[in-house]
Amino acid sequence: MLVQQRSRSPRGLVLPGRFVRKGETFADAVRATLSEKVGIEDAVAEPRLLKMYDDPRRDQRGWVMSALHVLALPVQALADASGDLLAVDEAGRLADRRHLVFDHDDMLAAAVQRMRSHYEATPDPYRLLGNSFTLGQLRDLHESVLGEPLLKDTFNRRMKGYLTEKMVKGEPVREQETGGRPALVYVRSKDTELSQRERRRLLLPRR
DNA sequence: TTATCGATCTAAGGCAGGTA
DNA sequence: TACCTGCCTTAGATCGATAA
């Protein structure tokens, strides 16, 4: 999670953000925040609106509404970003036990919960692995996001239903750098929008 | 330098028990 | 009864260490 140090009162760690200016949409403000405050000009993924926060008591400076957006990016894309990348725990709080100012702890937990629920139901829904990947890479990513180990066999069997082997010149592509038997490279099947029944079936198993 | 072996990894399939 | 799940086994492939 990328957090930033707020220099004005109340001081402390916050999620990146700013006020919406006259004539701006939320989308404009999100893009401007990424550009001006984080240093990301061209995000490969679109930020997703998650939740509105409108409790009049949430900010001592006055009545401030916040529109929480979520954007997931590979770590490499954040190499030059302004702020600190911090780990979160199982509950979606900062792993080092520090707290964010305002109600940003709740925002962080909500964002982590939403992201984990998406990774319960769809192979890499935020496309952090790009267009092609091995099952091992996919499982590592899902375990990282969910914060717990998964059953390898069941994960592979469930995910394969939503993946297609990557083919070049009629031959399946294999990843040679796994240290063992070359792993098959997969791409997402065209239809990865799962039905409610399929989503329940795809809920990932735990070790 | 080369061959061998063990460790490690993925892929695939079988099987028994559980469940809708 | 068909399907799903978890566990297990076997095979194939690579890498690094080690002996000849």
Automatic annotation (TrEMBL):
Q: Which Gene3D superfamilies match?
A: Nucleoside Triphosphate Pyrophosphohydrolase (3.90.79.10), Winged helix-like DNA-binding domain superfamily/Winged helix DNA-binding domain (1.10.10.10)
Q: Where is the NrtR DNA-binding winged helix domain?
A: 126-186
Checking Pfam families in the record gives: WHD_NrtR
Protein name from the UniProt record: 8-oxo-dGTP diphosphatase
Q: Top-level EC class, please?
A: hydrolase
* Hydrolase among keywords: yes
What InterPro entries does this protein's entry cite? Answer: NUDIX_hydrolase-like_dom_sf (IPR015797), WH-like_DNA-bd_sf (IPR036388), WH_DNA-bd_sf (IPR036390), WHD_NrtR (IPR054105)
Q: Which GO terms describe its molecular function?
A: 8-oxo-7,8-dihydrodeoxyguanosine triphosphate pyrophosphatase activity
EC number from the UniProt entry: 3.6.1.55
Q: Which UniProt keywords apply?
A: Hydrolase
Q: Hydrolase among the record's keywords?
A: yes
